[in-house]
Design goal:
alpha+beta, five-stranded mixed beta sheet, about 40% helix, binds copper (II) ion
Length: about 270
């Protein structure tokens, strides 16, 4: 029994780790991998959806009722009424109340996302026509991240989403993302983290995420930026602390922004 449970949990966990890209026939959100995204999904599923469904059903009922009850054959002499104060007050007040019920939790989530906790690391994403550039300002790292063409894809790489140089971040750490652009408007968006910010030339926008699960997460430029807008994906690989350190020591050499002194280079390449 334990074995079966283990296998099932293994299946479940591996799925969890990879369930971070769009899937065929997907209707809802991608799986959440951060607290912010979990709150967004809960807000949508538990509050917005029920309200939307209730309103749709109610309006459908009213239309059907009106069609049947006031059909021409049953009402040869139509009513000449044009005003009804009670009804007019109600159909103004009730939608207002519904909007307030939706706005309060919505703003709560929005403000929480807007407050950046103390960051463990900072990365900078720069939008170019048509690829993303990344910097790790505290680590002297800079690199460019291009989409992998369909013919060059490896077996586990999704089409139009995989990139040559992935952003690597440690799991369970607050990552601050500085976002800007070099030519036109772009937007840095990662659905599983609940992150989407415009990349504006001459301005730095900030956002943050804290990935809760190890895995590879995919996003896309989300501001129509030109002919190859659909071909500048975003890939973030979330790894353990040790793997991150390992990556850092390699990346400091491979993607060095400033020239590295010789002995440091030797140390790092060991
Ligand atoms: Cu773009």
């Amino acid at each position: 029994m334990k074995k079966i449970l283990f296998i099932f949990s293994g299946l479940f966990l591996t799925q969890e780790a990879f369930a971070n890209q769009p899937v065929d026939w997907q209707l809802g959100f991608q799986k959440a991998a951060s607290e912010s995204m979990r709150e967004i999904v809960a807000f949508h599923d538990k509050l917005l959806l029920p309200i939307i469904i209730a309103i749709s059903v109610f309006v459908l009922f009213l239309m059907l009722y009106a069609c049947v009850r006031f059909r021409a054959s049953a009402n040869p002499n139509p009513s000449k009424r044009t005003h009804n104060v009670t009804v007019e007050v109600l159909w103004t007040l009730i939608p207002c109340l519904i909007l307030i019920v939706m706005a309060v939790p919505s703003f709560k989530i929005l403000y929480k996302q807007d407050t950046i906790p103390k960051a463990d690391l900072t990365i900078k994403a720069i939008g170019y026509q048509w690829y993303w550039g990344y910097e790790y300002p505290d680590e002297n790292i800079i690199f460019e991240s291009y989409m992998i063409e369909e013919k060059d894809l490896k077996a586990d790489q999704p089409r139009l989403l995989a990139v040559d140089n992935e952003v690597v971040v440690p799991v369970d750490k607050v990552v601050k993302v500085l976002i800007t652009a070099n030519d036109v408007l772009h937007a840095w968006a990662l659905p599983s983290f609940g992150v989407k910010r415009d990349a504006v030339p001459g301005r730095i926008n900030e956002t943050w995420f804290k990935a809760e699960k190890v895995g590879t997460y995919y996003g896309q430029c989300s501001e129509l930026c030109g002919i190859k807008h659909a071909f500048m994906p975003i890939t973030v690989r979330v790894v353990s602390e040790e793997e991150y350190e390992e990556w850092l020591s390699e990346a400091r050499v491979k993607f060095a922004k400033e020239e590295i002194e010789n002995d440091k280079l030797k140390l790092a390449s060991k």
